[in-house]
């Protein structure tokens, strides 16, 4: 439980974040600055906001909860698999998003498949933007830290997230994400070595789990084949995650978003090691899981930290959750205003009207999310439910729109979305059982291939609205900002993968760390897991945060000198 000094620490940090967000909010006077930060995010800020937005309650507390049931399979299937399938997103898809997606994913659907596809996509995306699993994570933190009612704790955090979203816009959200990113990574890295070594490292954990469930300490043993496939699908889900689309379009160039995400891979994997092995420690301490694992994690960490640091840890955990909630609320608000309401008006929404509707939508999201967040046994169960739905409806048409340069008709997009969604509803209600996959399989495993078949059949009918970067008739799409600004040859340079440059070095860093962590796990090397992983995560985070502070200082210094020159 937190003490008075811990609570004061948290309050001071929250006030500081609000002051920063309010300052940035004064600069958000129109839709471009409010929703997309004028497409000016530098590399360091892009890293911070991508890392914090994705690694929220799901990535921290949720990972601990789910990994208690999976053991080492969590690392080898979930962590390694997650990042491997996302490399194409960073290397090839992200730069193209800067060209093909001017704002939201629904704008992309409207361009290639028409208004109905855009509206259906908007509705499904709003379900994703409710952040149900993040709200659930908040409740468990409140129970462990203050002994509070989980609904009350979640409601307080929702209010904070809504205020940050409404006040600061994307730039305010991104900057507060950077702060949350720093405290989140540092707090996890700071406490993990003590948790791991107090349990006796590998030897201590293994001696207990071998007597209860030996499969948990094998690379692939703690999970069924069907569940493993679902986890990989969740990893692929990021290809249609609206938060990444917004971050990539808000970056100051194609290379920025690409390299920011490549940097995140190594940080995320190091974090995974810390969180997943903490989960294994929790399972060893409570083999029957008599205590909710997410609550047990917070309680375990707080029991080993002194005053003030306990407050900073909770601020980091809550910050991770808030950074994800405010990200998705901002995106969801933009979708409601610009993609659902605006198309049905005779006159377009003004900037002021759009921002106001977005803020009202955020409040509604909070109410709905709070009403359903605690109906799932684990945080990851809520995430899997929402991800399975959105994957079934959106994955095929969105990926085809971005990557496939051939013919794409409106009938193809609509057929894919309706068949995928219908199949998900049907097979969620009447699950298919496949013995080799471990029993009942997730509905998305059936819906996805059916969605692809529907796309291919539908592509033989209907009308081609746009072809590649151009309209079907050959006219360039005026909405695609980069084609009209960047010379084609310059654009090719921007999206080119520099294998013998920064891109290759970041890929090599990830591969090297993955190899080292795998060696450490398979050979039970305590110092690699207990010390190296948290130190790598902390060091990279500190360097990125320092780089951002340097960029801010340099910007203000140059601005100050410029103002002096003008006065002269």
UniProtKB/TrEMBL annotation:
Subcellular location, record wording: Membrane
Keyword flag Secreted: no
Pfam families named among the record's database cross-references: SSF
Residue intervals passing through the bilayer: 6-25, 37-55, 75-95, 116-145, 151-171, 178-196, 216-239, 260-283, 295-315, 355-376, 382-404, 411-427, 433-457, 500-522, 528-550
One GO location term (cellular component): plasma membrane
PROSITE patterns reported in the protein's UniProt record: NA_SOLUT_SYMP_3
Keyword Cell cycle applies: no
PANTHER family in the cross-refs: SODIUM-SOLUTE SYMPORTER-RELATED, SODIUM/PROLINE SYMPORTER-RELATED
Secretion signal span: none
Protein name, as recorded: Osmoregulated proline transporter OpuE
Keywords annotated in UniProt: Membrane, Transmembrane, Transmembrane helix, Transport
